[in-house]
Amino acid sequence: MLKINILVENRTQRKNIIAEHGLSILVENNGFKVLFDVGQSNVFSLNAKTDRIDLSEIDALVISHGHFDHAGGVPEFCRLNKKAPIYVHPDAFCKRYIGRHGRPASGCIGVPWSCEDSIRNRMIFVREPTKIHSNIILSGEVLKDPAKKKVSTGLIKKKAEGNYEKDPVLDEQFMLVQGKKGIYLFSSCSHPGIINCLSYAKKLASESQIYGVIGGLHLERYNDEQLRNLATDFKSAGVKKIIPLHCTKIKASYLFKDYLGSNCILLNSGDEQILEN
User: Fold this and answer.
1) Dist. CA 228–CA 223, nearest whole Å
2) Which domains does the chain possess?
């Protein structure tokens, strides 16, 4: 069985489930349980408790990248789970900001906790593609396809010397899960660009079909024509299922739903979806 539980998402439709700006997805694949991100607080654990999900049984935690809305709940996870390794890029802990004219236009949006030994000792640092289970691979840094669109994140990070530079969010990684129907791509925010992620995923999967795309697609700056073109790109790439979450934004999610019909599934905090029996 391949099943997901949305522990954190921007929206919810259940009165006993909490929503917050962030993402946390529990993926269960034939008994192996991996938690993909932990949102920005302890909300993921409260929602798990409500749905009687035992976080102490999680086998692995993957932190997609070093932003507060994806990594903020790590200390809470470590309090509840004493065994699972934490897969993260070593550069996920820099000071990063929303930028304007090369200067911070926000408070720090990076990891909001200090990397104490009790947490660091559980970390496995990932730069290259890494297999964490027999059919689960982490991308490591997403290699850009020069033929694909270059992506500007609008973010900056603080250098060791104290000045700032553009932040391409090189620490962001996606996760590939092999199912019976094909491969499912889990992306948290797609800062490298979802088409770049999809292109690199195909290379990692030896050109196998990417059956599903699940997660944040960062499409708030896309207009209707660009969104329709992206939906067409997904179809052309052979993607059969899309579950848009988090930073995809409502407008883009509903346009995908209108364009792709039942091939687009809209989920919220507290939802469960069986991808394959």
Assistant:
1) 9
2) 2-276 (3.60.15.10)
